Amino acid sequence: MPDSQAVFFWLLAALVIGSALAVVLLKNIVHSALYLFLTFVGVAGLYILLHAEFLAAVQLLIYAGAIAVLIVFAVMLVRRGDIRLSNLYSIHFLPALVVSLVLFALVAVAVGRQLWLGYLAPPPEEPLVSLARNFLGEYVIAFEVAAILLLSAIVGAVLIVRGRRRSAP
Amino acid sequence: MEHIFTDLAALVAGWVSGSPQWVQTLVMGCLYLIGVLTFIFLNCIFLIYLERKVSAYIQQRLGPNRVGPRGILQPVADALKLLGKEDIIPEKADHWVFRLAPIIILVPAIMVFAVIPFGKNMIPVDLNIGVFYFLAVASTTTLAILMGGWSSNNKYALLGSMRAVAQIVSYEVPLAFSILGVVMIAGSLKTSQIVAAQENYWFILLQPLGFLIYFIAATAEVNRAPFDLVEGEQEIIAGPFIEYTGMRFALFYLAEYANLVAVSCLGVTLFLGGWHGPWLPSWLWFLIKVYILIFVFMWTRWTFPRIRIDHFLDFNWKVLLPLALVNILLTGIGLKLYQYITLGVW
Lengths: 169, 346
Description:
Chain A is mainly α. Chain A has helices spanning 4-25, 29-49, 53-77, 93-113, 127-138, 140-162.
């Protein structure tokens, strides 16, 4: 009998890599954005395999439910000319090759240096409780700083969207 | 009567108890899926009939009354008609996306039912993050509407799907915040524990404001009137579904009713005590409460006129969201006070 976890891992890995490739290779940018959604869903599946259900749900809610939808939305609004040829290959072949090779090497080194001992540890009984305790206990300052950063970003976005107020007559 | 469904599940579990673990998981998973699908489809068929009857009653008409006694077989006739329709795909549509959209919209509509406690010990998967799972999966519905609207290559369809995104993404926020009050009181995201916490009193008594916000935001999430701006017949004909015909259109329709059942089920689970109730079997109580909530949804639909899109979004950000935040604050203060009174510690 095959190890079901391994089977699902390879299926999900194929899904994530396949759809990520499709994001890059497809020439219709709306199709690329839709495949990006599929990539996010696949990553959420990988989180579930790692017993990180909360993270999987966050991935689905934020990335698949909001960000992917907003990307598709933005892409649709700016469509110009022939949508079939909206995501063409870059003409800067060599610089792109160098940048992506360097990035790949960096990620490979980072992955290789990791000891992956955490994988062997059993998942926590109540992952949500420990998450909440860490967020509002030990790391409360970092948590609140991130919250303030997001708040100021929202206020800034609202200000920009609202534009300049007309001066009083 | 109480154990009819749990006994059935136990019977099937007994049949496969000798086989390896993964066969058992697979068989039980399929069994739960079939159960959920049966629940959704039976309810949708009945809801089509009920919606027409309720609307007719509210508008002082008779409603469907020719097919079968009191028109009860009308949904069957409707389904047959839709099956027989020609399947039209616009020539300039994006064919694959057009074909996939009605199928993809059903996936989250079915998946959300995994965490609904239909009765005592009748929850398909008791996830640790239950309610949050529901919200996360439901949030992906937008994409299917967007796919349908964009691929139709029709300006009204695109306008409709743009409205859908604006509406669903913004109303998700007060929806999640209204649920947070319940989660704070129950101390868990597990739907089973939220129901268990309501054994003596329903959370609608402790969270009346939360329930009101949930109800309004849920109406917007499932695109029902007075918030059906996505379809707004008088303005943009049928929105994202304008080019769809036959069974593909029926699938969108089905997903809409499945979503209505889903938000009603979640509303009952969170605010109306879930399956708790005297005398009758737990699953029957659950069904009765769900139908009461669905009736209120229909009542609002046929009583209020559609509101304008800018008013609608203003209402969300300027009224519902602040109210939801106040509700969370009050719930937190209330919980601390209760803790101080009963336990004597802060």
